[in-house]
Amino acid sequence: MSLPTAGSTVRKINAPGKAPNCFAYNGRVRKTLNPALIIRGLIKDVGPVPALDGRMKRVVSNISLTAHFGQVTALLGANGAGKTTTIECAQGLQTRTGGQISLLGQDPETADAGLRARVGVMLQDGGLPPAARPVALLHHVAGLYATPLPVDALVDRLGISEFADTSIRRLSGGQKQRVALAASLLGNPEVLFLDEPSAGLDPASRIMVFELIRELRDAGKAIILTTHLLDDAQRLADYVYIVDKGESVASGTVQELLQTSTESLRHRAMTFEASPRLDVTALLRPQLECTETRPGSYVLSGQLEPSDLARFGSWCQRLDVMPTSVHLASQSLEDVFLAISEGSMPQAPASSETNPQTMGIS
Amino acid sequence: MSTLFHNAAPAQPATLARRILNQGRYEAGTMLRNGEQLVLMVVMPLLGLLALVFTPLLDGMGHPRVAIAAPGILALCALSTAFTGQGIATGFDRRYGVLRFMSTTPLGKGGLIAGKVIAVLVSLALQVVLISAVAAFMGWRPPLIGVLLGIPLLILGAAAFTALGLLIAGTVRPEATLAITNLGWILFAALGGIVLPAAKFSSSLDGIVQWLPSGALGNLMRAALIESRLDLWGLLVLLAWGVAAAIAAVKWFKWN
């Protein structure tokens, strides 16, 4: 099953007047049952902070989100935006200042062992004892569950066998990350929290981990991950919440975020390389600029349309110019993200968000 | 491999007893495999016992040297394992996020603490067996009533020092925990009345030491194992330290 990124068909199947309860990817219908995690109007103060004369600092001011089974839900934001604080409140590791959280129908702050068994957590800093050896540690953690996944199978699946008996302090960042992921999966959890899962991973490990996350999603798990990497969100996430300065400022599928934003974000650019000092007047029209950034390198920027490309073709023909390279920059999640962070997109309180399948620039 | 998650049993915790015993066994194994911990837990108390038995430091107190030395060295074992050993281990577990990760598993915070208590008790039991065997070899013959009295008092001492160790580990950086608990070990052992009865050396020192948890445990163990007597003052002081440290640890312990 492929991701709902560019090229795949994402389609909402909504009965009129009824909350959507299923989603179709490339024609295959996936049921989404009750939400695994609901956060409404989360507030979190930390402190007292000496730099603020001993006052509390508000690190999360208004975050609302819903994560469903069978979906990867990503919290995307810059470092310090409040992503980790949010999911640590959802895990019960931090006590919230305000708002509501329902994790599998329960309040995570009063979670009992039964709830904790159904939730897997991979912390940003791993949380593994440096002196432990990976496989021995995994066997120990498995012993905390009644019917854990087979440690050996998980060790094979994540390529941990090759450093099974090396103490954790000697492992690379990516190796530690794989052990932490395995530890979070041992109980076969229904909900999985992954805090920056691709941090420190080499390209091969990254592919391995991403494939595993997709497999877990296809097995019906609710996966909530944080990332500051737009590429991660674009590749993995079924649904993205953009978090900025402690607030959830926008949400939607990657495609929805891209589509909806095109109205307010039409800044596309074409760069091409050809001989220096060409007369580019014929390429221009109102709201379109062309600059020669260095000799022979041109950037045509503005709201590009198909006719602009046609005009570019005939301009080349008329001047007998053969560009050595032409690059058309399409809009990426990064553009959306930057636009939201810079405040050039409409923002409103996110608390009214009740339907995660409906795009909400909230 | 795609069946790894599809056909697996739904997530359920192991029973509470199994979770705590697993954690206790794992933590005890970690403590006993750590070379520095072994020096602190086994080598130092053994050297202390030998030094006290082979030097005239304890002469003139009306009892054989080993009879005065062994109870104090057993109290020192509780200090080593519960205060310094567990304090340092917990401080670094906290630094590396181990406490946070384990508290998200079915073990939880309560199970984590229970596991640490079990690890301390298992390590202490091994120390007691070893030290007692060596002391017996050197002629130690404690009265049976004293032994029956001494065991629960030693456990109480371990509990009080575990609470103190966790209080330090949970409130300051691990490097500071390392420094404070090691310095504490040296001061308690040398001047704190745990190994050497302070009353023998200076009455003004004894006036301070009898208020310390180290002096209280040392005096309790000596009264029990030499005279089969319960030192009520020592019991009160040790209980007060244990309860106060436990309350403070619950209030101020930071998991991250």
From TrEMBL, chain B:
Is the keyword Transmembrane helix assigned to this protein?
Answer: yes
Where is the protein localized? Membrane
Q: What are the alphabetically sorted keywords of the record? A: Antibiotic resistance, Membrane, Transmembrane, Transmembrane helix
Instruction: Show the GO MF annotations.
Output: ABC-type transporter activity
Can you supply a Gene Ontology BP term from the record? response to antibiotic
May I have one GO cellular component term? Answer: ATP-binding cassette (ABC) transporter complex
Q: Which InterPro entries match?
A: ABC2_TM (IPR013525), ABC_2_transport (IPR000412), Nod_factor_ABC_transporter (IPR051784)
Q: Which domain of life is it from?
A: Bacteria
Q: What is its main location?
A: membrane
Q: What is the recorded name of this protein?
A: ABC transporter
